Amino acid sequence: MRSVRARAALGATVVVAVALIGAGLAVLLVLRANLTDQAGLQAEVAAREVAGQLALDVPYTGLDLPDAREHPVQVTDEDGRLVAASEDLEAVTGTGTDRVVPVPSAAPGSSDDHGSDDDDGGDRHGGDRNRGDDDANTPGRGEVATDEPDFTNGTATVAGGAADYRFAAVSATTGAGVTLTVHAGAPLATEQEAVGSVRAAMLIGLPVMLLVVAAVTWLVTRRALRPVEGIRAEMAAITASADLSRRVPEPGSRDEIARLARTTNETLTALEASVERQRRFVADASHELRSPIASLRTQLEVGAAHPGLLDVPGAVADTVRLQVLAADLLLLARLDAGERPGSSRLDLGALVREEVSQRTGDRIPVTVAVPDPGPLEVAGSRGQLARVIGNLLDNAQRHAERSVVVSAAVERGAVVVAVADDGAGVPEPERERIFGRFVRLDDARSRDEGGAGLGLAIARDVAHRHRGTLTVTRAAAGGARFELRLPHPSPPGG
Fold this sequence. Notes:
Blueprint: H1 4-55, E1 73-76, E2 82-85, E3 89-93, E4 143-144, E5 150-158, E6 161-173, E7 179-187, H2 189-241, H3 256-305, H4 312-336, E8 345-347, H5 348-357, E9 366-369, E10 377-379, H6 382-399, E11 404-411, E12 414-421, H7 447-450, H8 455-465, E13 469-474, E14 480-487
Parallel strand pairs: 9-11
Antiparallel strand pairs: 1-2, 1-7, 3-5, 4-6, 5-6, 6-7, 8-10, 11-12, 12-14, 13-14
Helix pairs in contact: 1-2, 3-4, 4-8, 5-6, 6-8
């Protein structure tokens, strides 16, 4: 079953079915128990009424017995013989005896009574029951048992009609000391009809309710999943058309599906920006590579035709420029691929001094303001951070007029390296744009002097990979001040 709607509907139906069946069985059991208890109470009341008459020495033939259809009654003696019964009782089961015709016997208290006193004044079982005997549950003379009666289920046939009854057995002792047991029944027809009606209603209502639950669950799930189908269809269309500018529909609700749609659109936006950036990168890289390659080819072709006209220094310069550009492009490709810097620790101040010392051909001398030694330790890639410092110094050399100053210090838990010049500076609206790839503020500047416009882009990407920042502000001398801020690692064990 591959449909979410079908699985949800089936699951809800099964859960509701189990719950309803369990609840229905519990209701039937409780209902049957209550109605059976009520029938038992009615039977006990009828039995105690007859037992009360026996305790008052009412003769068997003079007992006022209830209607046999409502409460069939049997009275048995201590030997289990039937001494009295309802007139219309034709058959009975579930009581002390299945006999319905009483055994001929004298009235209680007469000389023929099988339970009469002996000459010594005691009962036939010896001793006055009022004085107690071995059977603690046997009532005394002229008393009815007060303990809980025994209940049984059985049947009785009265005037040709058989029915189920709940029987209660109550003991009573006559004044002559004869202990008799009264079996009185109460019909279970009400219990059977009620239980049958409830069972029939459940058998009819349960399938209907399950169908309603399944249908409602199907419709609700279908409505809830409709936006998901819209998202799927739009994503399929975007995949087929390769048009990343399209967006999936966002439902107006604030549920998980709406959040899914928003996240999907955010992903599409990021993907579109990434693809567009990649396209621009490829186009700009092709454009930048075309010039040095074409220049180098021209010089080599001229040199091949006229060896005396070969511009060897120009060819070498174009080759170096091509090599630097290729290295920049490879580094950007690695950064875009998610290359992470190492976790080794290094002294950023020492790295600054080392980079400045290797720049022997700079147009303007670089002033270094770095404490020696100083707590300028950072974690990261030595090669990539050296590339950042070199790119910032190259940028300052291109724009400075008389001075370039590089400094390093610890500020608010971060190591800060600043490169400042006294050039024209960067206009405030352009301070974020200059970190884009292949961006040159002075489009009229020659590529030989201005570079390919990748240095600052590489520097910022490396700073971000090291969980740092690279920003530009106005320097005190009026030029640009580039500030590299990297987190200062905690000391070992701190």
